[in-house]
Fold this sequence. Notes:
Layout: E1 4-12, E2 15-21, E3 26-29, H1 35-44, E4 52-56, H2 62-65, H3 68-75, E5 78-80, H4 83-93, E6 107-109, E7 112-118, E8 127-133, E9 136-141, H5 151-155, E10 160-164, H6 169-174, H7 179-186, H8 194-204, E11 211-215, H9 224-234, E12 242-245, E13 255-257
Parallel strand pairs: 3-4, 4-5, 9-10, 10-11, 11-12
Antiparallel strand pairs: 1-2, 1-13, 2-3, 6-7, 7-8, 8-9
Amino acid sequence: MMGFQFCVLGSGSSGNSVAFWDSETAFLVDAGFSCRETARRMGQAGLDPESISTILISHEHSDHIGGARVIQKKFSPRILTTFPVNRWLDAKFGIATEPELEPDIPFKLGNFTVTPFEVSHDASQTVGFTIAKGTARVAMATDLGHITPGLERHFAGADAIILESNHDVQMLKEGPYPAFLKKRILGKQGHLSNVQSSEMLVNIVGERTRHVTLAHLSQENNKPDIARDEAGKALSSRKNIEIVPASQFDIGNIIKVR
Ligand SMILES: [Zn+2]
Ligand SMILES: [Zn+2]
């Protein structure tokens, strides 16, 4: 009764969305896939799109909000985000949302306590989230350029961690992206590399941590095996942690958090 479940519906530059639910409440973090695709993926996870009460938005990049307007129109969830992102959504889509989220201020969502926290990324404001119910807790951030002071405490000891592992630095440097894009991705407000992600994982996994999802893997500049191996090496002393690279094409397993 106390626990909850989540399913990464997909993660990558073409879309990001994670569903969380317990017996009473269901919500999404980000809605980067089309309404139709989101509904299809939720169906695969055994979820009714009508059951979604809320969509939490991390930031305004299209891979996180692409389906939000149509999903809201069709299934009427409220869309909650921070003040700067809310202004952006309102100007662009006319989606007024209340209440506005504030970094480091927890709020209640059914039986869940959700706490946004700010990360370094090139949107008007970008947040990660901790999602807790009772003593069970998931921490997630899918777009961040580097590890800012205080960031790790939000993740420390969570039961499950969803963390960006965007690129292999070598592949990115030698790959086909134009120089400006390479610079953006490698920059402090860009995306987290496999090495950065692994270094952070070492500091944040705790006794209770059982599951790590590597998120927002680049199609061009990463491979699931490379990302998993890098994280696996870093966490080699912890055999009881499952490490799963997320896909932008397929949903992940349904993860039960006690
Ligand atoms: Zn982004
Ligand atoms: Zn993104």
